[in-house]
Design goal:
The protein contains 11 helices and 44 strands. By secondary structure, the protein is mostly beta strands. InterPro entries: AB_hydrolase_fold, Peptidase_S9_cat, Peptidase_S9B_N, Serine_Prot_S9B/DPPIV.
């Protein structure tokens, strides 16, 4: 536990401080990764004067020296407003800041590519020189170095291009993109819901590029307004509402030698989604994953570029839905691959032959694999992160490819908490980004058996640390378990106020998300707004209800075609537990959440008003028919399949509102459209039910911006103080 006791260091935590520099938890390197090999690390870092404007840095591991390679302010590029496509792409990636925000290494380690102000720049490691590769009025996006470093590819005006670095010649792979047709780009639901951020893939030998053709014409047009402080934009957005048509998508292979393109004809596979694309190492075969529209079937398919023959390697099926993953790995021998599946009820790794026959299960047990991190084929060792020790902790493990002992991997990381790792290309080292409830983020360098070789960010809480002045009143969570109505375990964490007195009665803020694909109760460093609220005299309670992530299919499944029901039931179980505690005031329990958490807040306030006396709902889904196809249909099926959607909507329950409600929404939200909130505003007004609202001009789903964040969280804190706080 972090301990630094001295009455001298006792400063009052404020909302303004939460969103001011330097960060309370220290400055974590952004986009930290190994250069090819394992002698250097690269990362992005802001300056003291402007911490949100990023430069490119290099760390020499042997010399323990940091060098700034490229300063964003030194680049010769006229300032450009981000294109709408790039704004949307960054929103999907949850990227913020300015300067150099992303970069990639050449495979040989001799160059770094990065976009800046809509153009593409190339940094030569040998010459320490930056070359501007493009200078156009258009905004180039998704720039990448080819596998051998001979070409640079990118998207411009919805077409795919590449530049030959030896000659400087630019080639247009496609020219027909524009309007509703896009080449080499990921469609909206691929980015937002499948986490596929690109639409093109280089063959390892650079002979070909696989690319998508996306036609948005079948997708319905959503006419929405983006309301800014001084203007209103009318946006006609192709938005795939649940039950509506998706894009038409095809996958092709473009040959650099003769500029020809083979199209696979994905329309023949029926209604569905292109979720992943991966080349095999021989560059002769291309794999892609095709998911059925109902998301109950996922095929791993193989396309032979020479013969144009296709085969299905793996077919996954489910009675509910299939979760996507990024854990496909083709071995160098071109005869085997590793695949992840939840067929056992938990996500595990499997070894296959390339003819689709299963060799063995590599991991097993009633626990979840997080991610396949690395495969060292020379030693036959695979490294993966998993929840084997506890669903609340993520650790690094290793196992043997040829071992029959699938339930007994070796745990490498030992400290209790959450570990994110990245291996070097040699597998001789890995970066461990670690935190726990008592320790803010630390970054360290380790050997393959876990021994720490160096601190990259020790983040020791000494007198000079930004957190030191606040430690005296810092509060740490307690963890516990409850039991759901079906007997499954529910994990919670509870953080008590400063100077907690068990003889007093405290108000509670339930901090909720509750949706699939997310987990809030982990042994990691906590949320700073939660900390602030505990220092204002609130107990803060978070419970991961059924439907949450990293617990297996049986824990997720109760929400299938039933959203808004088991989640609320479990949150009521949490509220009932809180009321049983002698130090909780049962008449002063509130609930707050954003996005799915906003939806959960509304459902809890409407369906269980006897438990929740005040609520703050941020950017909520209110009617699942207004949300997108891939997310909504995964959990709810199609809108015309019975009354599921109506039962999961907030509107049938709005009459149940008894407590104090505050809603907020970004008025330019292109994910959970502002319409979700305005529809509910209207119903509550028609019902003559009082509530409060705050709408943010020009803000998207994440409600970004320092001043906006300060306003938002000050408002939330004040609302709870006025409704359930000490009067």
């Amino acid at each position: 536990m972090v301990v630094f006791s001295s009455s001298v260091y006792a400063e009052k935590l404020t909302i303004e401080r939460l969103f001011s520099a330097p960060s309370l938890v220290g400055e974590k390197p952004r986009s930290l990764r190994f250069a090819p090999g394992d002698n250097y690390l690269s990362y992005l870092k802001g300056s003291e004067a402007n911490p949100d404007r990023y430069d490119l840095w290099l760390y020499d591991i042997k010399k323990a020296e940091h060098t700034r390679l490229v300063a964003a302010d030194d680049l010769n590029s006229s300032s450009q407003e981000l294109s709408e496509e790039e704004k949307a792409r960054r929103e999907r990636q949850r990227i913020s800041g300015s300067g150099i925000i992303e970069y990639s290494w050449s495979k040989s380690g001799d160059a770094i590519l990065f976009p800046y102000n809509g153009d593409i720049f190339y940094y030569s490691v040998k010459n320490t020189e930056v070359t501007q590769l493009t200078e156009t009025e258009a905004f180039e996006t998704d720039a990448r170095l080819s596998p051998k470093g001979n070409f640079v590819s990118f998207i411009r005006n919805q077409n795919l291009f590449y530049i030959d670095l030896a000659t400087g010649e630019e080639t247009a792979v496609t020219t027909a993109g524009g309007g509703l047709v896009k080449y080499g780009m990921a469609e909206f639901v691929a980015q937002e819901e499948m986490k596929r951020m690109t639409g093109y893939w280089w063959a390892p030998d650079e002979s070909a590029i696989a690319l998508t053709r996306v036609d948005e014409s079948p997708v319905p047009v959503a006419t929405r307004t983006e309301i800014y402080a001084d203007t209103v934009k009318v946006i006609k957005q192709r938005y795939p509402f649940a039950g509506a048509e998706n894009v038409n998508i095809d996958l092709g292979v473009y040959q650099l030698a003769d500029a020809s393109t083979q199209w696979l004809g994905l329309d023949e596979l029926g209604d569905g989604y292109l979720t992943r694309v991966n080349w095999l190492n021989d560059s002769e075969r291309l794999s892609y994953q095709w998911q059925s529209r109902d998301q109950q079937r996922l095929d791993l398919r193989l396309f032979n570029v020479d013969t144009e023959q296709q085969q299905i390697l793996v077919e996954e099926t489910s009675d509910t839905w299939i979760n996507l993953h990024n854990d496909l790995y083709f071995l160098e021998d071109n005869n085997h691959f590793i695949w992840a599946s939840e067929r056992s009820g938990y996500k595990h790794l499997y070894l296959y032959r390339l003819d689709g026959s299963l060799i063995r299960q590599l991991t097993s047990g009633d626990w979840m694999v997080d991610e396949l991190e690395a495969v060292d084929e020379s030693t036959g060792i695979l490294y993966f992160t998993a929840r084997r020790k506890s669903p609340l902790e993520r650790h690094l493990y290793r196992a043997q490819l040829n071992s029959g002992s699938s339930n007994n991997p070796t745990q490498i990381t030992q400290r209790e908490g959450m570990h994110d790792v990245e291996f070097s290309s040699t597998f001789h080292r890995y970066i461990d980004t670690f935190s726990s409830p008592e320790q803010p983020v630390q970054v360290s360098l380790h050997g393959p058996t876990g021994e720490r070789q160096a601190w990259l960010l020790e983040n020791k809480i000494d007198k000079g640390h930004p957190l030191a002045n606040y430690l005296r009143d810092w509060n740490y969570p307690e963890f516990g378990q409850l039991t759901a109505e079906d007997g499954q375990t529910l994990y919670y964490k509870m953080t008590k106020p400063s100077d907690f007195d068990k003889a007093k009665k405290y108000p509670v803020m339930v901090y909720v998300y509750g949706g699939p694909g997310a987990q809030r109760v982990t042994k990691s460093w906590g949320n700073h707004f939660v900390q602030y609220m505990t220092q204002q005299g609130f107990i803060v309670f978070t419970l991961d209800n059924r439907g949450s992530d990293n617990r297996g299919k049986a824990f997720e499944a109760p929400i299938y075609k039933n959203m808004g029901s088991p989640e609320v039931t479990d949150q009521v179980t949490g509220a009932t537990f809180l009321k049983s505690l002698p130090y909780v005031d049962e008449d002063r329990i509130g609930i707050y959440g954003h996005s799915y958490g906003g939806y959960m807040t509304l459902m809890a306030m409407f369906k269980a008003p006897e438990h929740f006396k005040a609520g703050v709902s941020g950017a909520p889904v209110t009617d699942w028919r207004l949300y997108d196809t891939h997310y909504t249909e995964r959990f709810m099926g199609m809108p015309d399949e019975g009354e599921n959607y109506e039962a999961a909507s907030v509107f049938p329950y709005a009459d149940g509102l008894k407590g104090d409600l505050l809603m907020y929404h970004g008025m330019a939200d292109d994910n959970v459209l502002f319409t979700h909130s305005t529809k509910l505003y209207k119903q509550l007004q028609d019902n003559e039910q009082p509530f409060e609202m705050m709408n943010y001009p020009g803000k998207k789903h994440s409600i970004n911006g320092r001043h906006t964040k300060i306003h938002l969280y000050s408002m939330i804190a004040q609302f709870f103080q006025q409704t359930i706080g000490e009067q």
